[in-house]
DNA sequence: TCGGTCAAACCGATGA
DNA sequence: TCATCGGTTTGACCGA
């Protein structure tokens, strides 16, 4: 799986890389950078050492359970779990290695994170979506810039064509040494397909 | 307080 | 049938 650097300013045309993503790395869990991390800390962390202790986990698990019981299926509004810094980090690390999980990996990761496999699955799902969105935004940005440069190039070429056409309308004339009649110094021809103008200099009238 | 943002969770469609 | 995806909903949070 190709990985594009987050701050890549590359303007190569090879922008369509299916499955590739800007794998953002921890601690910026996603697009928010430190902002998200701060939020995670605010929400989930006891203001001590920042590590997950057993109490927190058990509370989480309890809430999780109640969440599943009270969720949409239960008729009451679902309660939203906020992942801890640690959990986000491990998920990001795992995502960096692989954007999809097989059932065994999912199970293992869920166990490691003390989450439900379903939650890990959902997280990966959302993470893939965010990756894709970011990639699409990058491509969009690139296409905009490309469009801009093509527009500029088009403008220049049109101007050039205009100038060349003007030259053709009123070409400089020279007198023929034989007939003393005026004749064009050069002959301009335009390709009907690409509108490119080519000039043929007449050197010797006798050869015409 | 309110509007905006982010991300977890859900839902229905789809392909293997 | 199951995994995945795109789209949507919902809740937590932040800043004006």
UniProtKB/TrEMBL annotation:
Classification via SMART domains: HALZ, HOX
Protein's UniProt keywords contain Transcription regulation: yes
MF GO annotations: DNA-binding transcription factor activity, RNA polymerase II-specific; sequence-specific DNA binding
Localization: Nucleus
Record bears the keyword RNA-binding: no
Gene3D superfamilies hit by this protein: Homeodomain-like
InterPro entries: HD, HD-ZIP_Homeobox_LZ_Class_II, Homeobox_CS, Homeodomain-like_sf, Leu_zip_homeo
Predominant location category: nucleus
TM spans (from-to): none
Pfam families in the cross-refs: HALZ (PF02183), Homeodomain (PF00046)
DNA-binding region, residues: 76-135
Keywords: DNA-binding, Homeobox, Nucleus, Transcription, Transcription regulation
Cellular component GO terms held in the UniProt record: nucleus
Annotated ranges, domain Homeobox: 74-134
Family as reported in the entry's similarity comment: Belongs to the HD-ZIP homeobox family. Class II subfamily.
Protein name, per record: Homeobox-leucine zipper protein HOX3-like
Recorded name of the encoding gene: LOC104248261
């Amino acid at each position: 799986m190709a990985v594009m650097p987050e701050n890549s300013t590359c303007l190569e045309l090879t922008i369509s890389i299916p499955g590739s993503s800007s794998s953002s790395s921890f601690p910026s869990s996603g697009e928010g950078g430190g902002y998200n991390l701060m939020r995670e800390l605010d929400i989930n962390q006891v203001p001590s050492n920042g590590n997950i202790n057993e109490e927190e986990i058990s509370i989480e698990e309890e809430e999780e359970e109640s969440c599943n019981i009270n969720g949409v299926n239960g008729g009451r509004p679902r309660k939203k779990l906020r992942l801890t810094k640690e959990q986000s980090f491990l998920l990001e690390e795992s995502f960096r290695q692989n954007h999809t999980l097989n059932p065994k990996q999912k199970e293992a990761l869920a166990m490691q994170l003390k989450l439900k496999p379903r939650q890990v699955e959902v997280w990966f799902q959302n993470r893939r979506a965010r990756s894709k969105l970011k990639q699409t935004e990058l491509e969009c940005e690139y296409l905009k810039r490309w469009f801009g440069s093509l527009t500029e190039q088009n403008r220049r070429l049109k101007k050039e064509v205009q100038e060349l056409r003007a030259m053709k309308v009123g070409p400089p004339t020279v007198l023929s040494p034989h007939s003393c009649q005026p004749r064009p110094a050069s002959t301009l021809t335009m390709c009907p397909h690409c509108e490119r103008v080519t000039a043929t200099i007449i050197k010797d009238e006798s050869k015409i």
